């Protein structure tokens, strides 16, 4: 979840071309400049095919965004998923689909790049516009400063946002779906040449010039690589033990004054509740969420959920709690953050990339999932625009993607390391960086400049390194001194 961020000025015309050109020499650029350039990537004016056929394994949001990019560079794109991707509503393969999802302003702008007019279509299907003035955020009970020129965002359920993205992709003429279970990869020497599938008990193969793994946290790609004699990417984990509870309430206001309200507790004051939030979503409903860590599972019953909303959070939450609850409380557990370091493999087959949660999955409290997936799609677009040799490993893609993964990983894990039940591993200089982070977060309550920069970073519009500057740190210290 995020307070939101100011809009990033997207280059156009010649500047956009220069931005694309700068990404060609990725390794010579700072991570901050790479992330800024990726945020500026737009769909091309004209398709530029570099392959005959691409196959995406997994119809997740990350898979759909990858298919959207591939549609500009492949004669045909096939998306393989066990679920019927043409069915309405949420997918059974998304166990967390009933939980509250934040579309960060950065992710919203990325979707506008990929699907011009996305905002209008989302609003037409019931999403609620969340302008800066309609969002409120609290830290330890203190109302955070409103950033005047922050970017707009959207509020809606995960099934609404995902189905809208899916609709946009599946109407593309060169994208089709196969309802099947992917069972492995096919290799032609050093090149990935297809995906093995089980379709209704019959084995088959979807041939491909490029295969994209979008199978999510439980991706089997590492096993498939090991079975074929390739290296298995290193898997890094950080224990989170997050427990979510989400409930729906009837909303009577068609255009509520506050469409998104969040109240987070810092680790030192969180007790058994890490935070709560509620969003206005489609069909005249509020979606409210409560979270706790480790053994704390607040809000598992309707009575406990409503009581805590009334007693442990600012007054806006009581308004929701006094509304009619629709259905039961839905719970979800997120055990750990994890990442697979494909970029570090010394032996990697050509014609293969991985995106979304299959590469890195973070503590969902920070709402990075959709935005990170959209930036992975930007990495793929940048890689394919250079007309790569698909007979060679996609190292340039993984180098770009590493910048995105490192940024999101540092945002989420640096905060998670402060949780009492998390015991590392702590990076070098953690004590100092943790103290600086606490000063910056505290300053976001009262200081516009600090809040603006912080929101840009959390929304992945700027690199986390932009917070570690003398100007930002001194500004935060001055703001906190004034507040005291």
Account of the 3D structure:
This protein is an alpha/beta fold and 484 residues long. 33% of the residues lie in helices and 24% in strands. The protein has helices at 14-22, 31-39, 61-70, 105-114, 118-124, 158-170, 221-227, 302-312, 315-321, 369-385, 395-416, 430-443, 448-458, 470-483; strands spanning 51-57, 74-81, 128-130, 135-139, 142-143, 153-155, 175-179, 181-188, 191-199, 202-207, 210-213, 235-250, 260-264, 275-281, 285-293, 325-340, 352-354, 360-361. Strands 5-4-13-14-15-12-16-18 form an 8-stranded mixed β-sheet, with helices on both faces. α3 (61-70) packs parallel to α6 (158-170), α3 packs parallel to α10 and α12 packs across α14. It starts with 13 loop residues before the first helix and ends with a helix.
**Any idea what the radius of gyration is?**
22 Å
State the end-to-end distance: 27 Å
Number of helix segments? 14
Largest sheet: 8 strands, mixed
Taken as a percent bin, the fraction of beta residues is 15-25%
Question: Strand order of the main beta sheet, please?
Answer: 5-4-13-14-15-12-16-18
What is the number of strand segments? 18
Assign the structural class, choosing from mainly alpha, mainly beta, alpha/beta, alpha+beta, or little secondary structure: alpha/beta
Shape: globular
Oligomer designation: single chain
Spans of 5+ residues with little confidence (pLDDT < 50)? 1-22
Helix content: 25-40%
If you average the pLDDT, what whole number results? 88
């Amino acid at each position: 979840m995020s307070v939101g961020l100011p809009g990033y000025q997207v280059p156009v015309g010649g500047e956009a071309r220069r931005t694309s050109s700068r990404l060609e020499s990725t390794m010579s650029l700072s991570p901050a400049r790479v992330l800024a350039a990726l945020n500026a990537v737009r769909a091309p004016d004209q398709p530029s095919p570099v392959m005959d056929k691409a196959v995406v394994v997994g119809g997740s949001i990350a898979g759909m965004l990858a298919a959207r990019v591939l549609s500009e560079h492949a004669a045909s794109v096939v998306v393989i998923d066990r679920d019927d991707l043409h069915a309405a509503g949420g997918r059974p393969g998304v166990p967390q689909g009933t939980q509250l999802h934040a579309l960060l302003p950065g992710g919203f702008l990325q979707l506008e790049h990929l699907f011009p007019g996305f905002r209008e279509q989302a609003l037409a299907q019931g999403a609620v516009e969340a302008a800066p003035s309609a969002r409120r955020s609290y830290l330890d009970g203190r109302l955070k400063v409103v950033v005047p020129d922050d970017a707009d965002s959207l509020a809606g359920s995960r099934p609404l946002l995902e189905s809208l993205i899916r609709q946009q992709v599946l109407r593309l003429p060169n994208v089709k779906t196969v309802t099947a279970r992917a069972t492995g990869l096919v290799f032609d020497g050093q090149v990935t040449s297809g995906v093995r599938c089980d379709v209704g008990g019959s084995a088959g193969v979807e041939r491909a010039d490029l295969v994209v793994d979008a199978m999510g946290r439980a991706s089997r790609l590492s096993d498939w690589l090991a079975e074929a004699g390739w290296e298995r990417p290193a898997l890094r984990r950080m224990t989170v033990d997050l427990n979510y509870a989400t409930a729906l309430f009837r909303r009577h206001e068609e255009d509520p004054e506050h469409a998104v309200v969040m109240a987070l507790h810092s680790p030192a004051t969180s007790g058994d509740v890490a935070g709560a939030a509620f969003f206005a979503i489609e069909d005249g409903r509020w979606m409210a969420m409560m979270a706790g860590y480790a053994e704390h599972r607040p809000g598992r019953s309707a009575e406990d959920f409503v009581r805590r909303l009334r007693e442990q959070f600012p007054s806006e939450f009581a308004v929701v709690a006094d509304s009619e609850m629709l259905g039961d409380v839905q719970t979800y557990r997120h055990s750990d953050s994890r990442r697979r370091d494909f970029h570090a493999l010394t032996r990697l087959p050509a014609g293969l990339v991985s995106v979304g949660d299959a590469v890195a999955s973070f503590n969902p409290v920070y709402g990075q999932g959709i935005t990170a997936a959209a930036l992975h799609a930007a990495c793929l677009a940048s890689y394919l625009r250079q007309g790569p040799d698909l007979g060679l490993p996609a190292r340039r893609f993984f180098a770009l993607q590493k910048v995105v993964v490192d940024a999101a990983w540092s945002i989420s894990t640096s905060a998670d390391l402060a949780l009492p039940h998390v015991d590392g591993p702590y990076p070098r200089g953690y004590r100092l960086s943790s103290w600086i982070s606490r000063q910056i977060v505290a300053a976001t309550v009262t200081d516009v400049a600090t809040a603006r920069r912080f929101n840009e970073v959390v929304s992945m519009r700027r690199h986390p390194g932009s917070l570690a500057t003398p100007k930002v740190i001194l500004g935060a210290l001055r703001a906190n001194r004034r507040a005291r």
